[in-house]
Backbone:
């Protein structure tokens, strides 16, 4: 069911309720949806990232029979952790809880999970100097009535010269995009609905540990690993999913949570074919290259956050919010810069390019203090293929269309399918996961 | 002719109890479809909260009203009312409380007819509504971005009230009443943000509210 239909039904219920408020005086109106109506069918969730794990967690809590088919040998998708690189575990994927006003904010609060507000000051590499402020404020991509042109073109329209190129690139990188591809208009439209808050929090352990403990652990026994789904046939009542080993799985409802890059590339074939509007909607998403490179040094010589590098637009002190004696700098590389680094072909070459740039910024201190690196290139990951979905020029309502269910059988979730402004995030993926389960159960109720 | 007489009798007679000041307190039952839906979705999506958030249903209202002097069976006046609704769910480490307060400023059309129905009166109330919803977690206001989370809204309100006078003395009357009202709370864009922490995922920016009140008023001549 699409959002519009859902809202229409919800308001019909409300209007109906106003005219005939049957439950009005009964003391026990339902405080939950679908209470006591456990669905008897089988649900298959494709993908065990944040969206798929949360969908599973919810299905489990409702007593519904489900299996999660995961292509990789592990769950988490664009979340992960690595031990042993530093004296604390590093988040190889998502790392900041963006804002507290979200479902995950509640889960953190309820369990008193240790987090720290990240108040790192931002500096810029501008005109070959480190500066704390810029002559012009580059954060120009919020607000109403922005034109449907790329960040880059919009910056030019507002008179930002070439010296701002990599600053603008860093702002686009935050959206997982190259500045030349992301739409100023559609991105700002997306952002209008952002309600989680603007503060960023870091977990004392890792974001992955948090998801692992509270969401993944309860559903781990329902995950089948190393099972890339290749085809979904939803011709008949019973849906058939064929995996890469030609094993066939059957379900009554399917929730697809794979990254939009996988859908764009038609790596899963659907029969009958998905509606053309839907495949066209997938194609309108951008999903740029993305990587995180952790660089360990013997001492701290760098700024907490530095925007504007030509090789990497954003360098961030990773040890903020951690109990550590180590000095780890994170190169957060997205879009064209990530594609450039990716094309170098090896972790060593990527590390060398970054150290060279850091040397030029910090007068040779980087190579002198360099100890080790850990490269996490999401473009390389065969079941991810990029960072996160962003709105391109001409995006229109593609996100809403992409997120719509098909024939009340196929439901779509995942960060890119979040239609309420929290896409590109873990909490947004989680929201899309519960919305998909809600839609599954609504489709049964009809 | 019969109807004309009846009409005359209804509207042109001398009002038995004109010009008064009154105050009242009532139990207030709320039915707000969109908010029910939001709280249900909140509960649905958060299995980690075992105790479910009750729907925002029960509240109280206090009001002050002044009725202008009138020689007719119909009189009119003004009213200021304040309502408060609360819903709280206590979970280990996480007590979530929603509070909704509404202020109504309105116009009253009062009708009573001693000859037709002794001591009974009816009122039509038309008001403007302003409301504020807040969230508390573990008994402290929920804050993010260093701001207190709140959802403001505005709407209209139309209600009909039926009451009964009990004479205490010449100047004072006690009056039990029932009131049914409808509030198109037509602009409440942040209710979903506050309740379900999303925008535009499950609800519209407005809600229709139906109220049923049972209360007691004290009236002075
Ligand atoms: C480098 C980086 C840093 C980030 N930092 C943050 C951050 O700090 N904070 C934040 O909130 N968000 C951050 N994000 C975004 C966040 O990680 C994602 O939005 C979120 O994890 C996406 O979850 P998902 O479930 O939608 O997708 P994914 O996590 O990608 O999960 C999809 C799953 O589907 C599987 N899959 C793919 N194809 C198939 C198939 N054919 N069959 C079966 N399974 C398949 C994949 O293996 C994967 O496990 C970051 C992302 C990246 C890349």
Residues:
């Amino acid at each position: 069911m699409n959002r519009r239909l859902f809202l229409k039904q919800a308001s019909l219920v409300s209007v109906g309720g106003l005219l005939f408020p049957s439950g009005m005086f009964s003391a026990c109106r339902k405080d939950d949806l679908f209470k006591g109506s456990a669905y008897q069918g089988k649900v298959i969730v494709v993908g065990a990232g944040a969206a798929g794990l949360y969908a599973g967690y919810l299905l489990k809590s409702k007593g519904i029979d489900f299996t999660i088919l995961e292509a990789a040998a592990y769950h988490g998708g664009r979340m992960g952790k690595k031990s042993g690189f530093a004296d604390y575990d590093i988040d190889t994927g998502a790392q900041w809880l963006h804002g507290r006003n979200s479902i995950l904010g509640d889960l953190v609060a309820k369990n008193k999970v240790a987090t720290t507000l990240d108040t790192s000051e931002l500096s810029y590499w501008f005109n070959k100097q480190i500066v704390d402020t810029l002559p012009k404020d580059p954060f120009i991509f919020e607000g109403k009535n922005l034109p449907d042109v790329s960040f880059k073109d919009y910056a030019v329209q507002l008179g930002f010269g070439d010296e701002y190129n990599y600053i603008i690139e860093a702002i686009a990188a935050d959206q997982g995009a190259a500045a030349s591809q992301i739409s100023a208009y559609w991105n700002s439209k997306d952002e209008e609905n952002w309600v989680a808050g603007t503060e960023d929090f870091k977990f004392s352990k890792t974001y992955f540990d948090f998801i692992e403990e509270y969401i993944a652990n309860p559903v781990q026994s329902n995950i089948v690993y190393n099972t890339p789904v290749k085809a979904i046939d939803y011709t008949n009542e019973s849906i058939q999913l064929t995996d890469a080993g030609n094993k066939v799985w059957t379900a009554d409802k399917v929730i697809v949570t794979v990254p939009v890059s996988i859908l764009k590339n038609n790596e899963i074939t659907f029969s009958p074919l998905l509606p053309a509007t839907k495949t066209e909607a997938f194609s309108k998403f951008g999903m740029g290259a993305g990587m995180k490179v952790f660089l360990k040094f013997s001492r701290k010589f760098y700024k907490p956050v530095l925007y504007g590098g030509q090789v990497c637009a954003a360098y961030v002190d990773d040890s903020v919010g951690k109990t550590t004696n180590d000095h780890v700098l994170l190169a957060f590389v997205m879009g064209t810069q990530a594609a450039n680094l990716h094309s170098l072909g090896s972790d060593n070459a990527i590390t060398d390019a970054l150290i060279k740039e850091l040397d030029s910024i910090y007068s040779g201190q980087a190579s002198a203090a360099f100890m080790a690196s850990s490269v996490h290139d999401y473009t390389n990951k065969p079941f991810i293929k990029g960072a996160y979905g962003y709105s391109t020029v001409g995006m229109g309502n593609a996100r809403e269309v992409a997120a719509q269910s098909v024939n009340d059988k196929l439901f779509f979730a995942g960060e890119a399918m979040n239609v309420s402004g929290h896409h590109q995030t873990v909490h947004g993926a989680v929201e899309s996961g519960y919305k998909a389960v809600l839609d599954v159960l609504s489709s049964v109720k009809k | 002719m019969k109807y004309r007489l009846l009409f005359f009798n209804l509207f042109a007679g001398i009002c038995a109890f004109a010009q008064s000041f009154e105050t009242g307190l009532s139990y207030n039952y709320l039915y707000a479809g969109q908010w029910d839906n939001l709280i249900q979705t909140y509960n649905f999506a958060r299995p980690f909260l075992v105790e479910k958030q009750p729907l925002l249903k029960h509240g109280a209202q206090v009001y002050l009203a002044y009725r202008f002097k009138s020689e007719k069976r119909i009189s009119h006046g003004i009213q200021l009312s304040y309502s408060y609704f609360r819903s709280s769910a206590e979970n280990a480490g996480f007590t979530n409380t929603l509070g909704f307060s509404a202020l109504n400023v309105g116009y009253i059309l009062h009708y009573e007819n001693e000859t037709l129905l002794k001591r009974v009166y009816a009122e039509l109330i038309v008001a403007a509504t302003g409301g504020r919803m807040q969230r508390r977690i573990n008994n402290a206001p929920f804050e993010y971005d260093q701001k207190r989370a709140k959802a403001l809204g505005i709407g209209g309100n139309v209600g009909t009230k039926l009451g009964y006078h009990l004479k205490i003395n010449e100047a004072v009357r006690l009056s039990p009443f029932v009131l049914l009202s409808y509030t198109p709370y037509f602009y409440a864009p942040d209710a979903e943000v506050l309740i379900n922490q999303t925008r535009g995922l499950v609800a519209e920016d407005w809600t229709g509210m139906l109220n049923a009140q049972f209360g007691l008023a004290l009236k002075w001549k």
User: Anything to note?
Assistant: Residues 33-45 of chain B form the longest helix (13 residues). Chain B touches chain A through 46 residues (CB under 8 Å). Residues 3-17 of chain B have pLDDT under 50 and may be disordered. The pocket of flavin-adenine dinucleotide is lined by residues A 46-52, 69-72, 77-79, 93-96, 98, 228-229, 257-259, 262, 267-268, 290, 292, 378, 383-384, 387-388, 414-415, 424-426, 429 (CB under 6 Å).
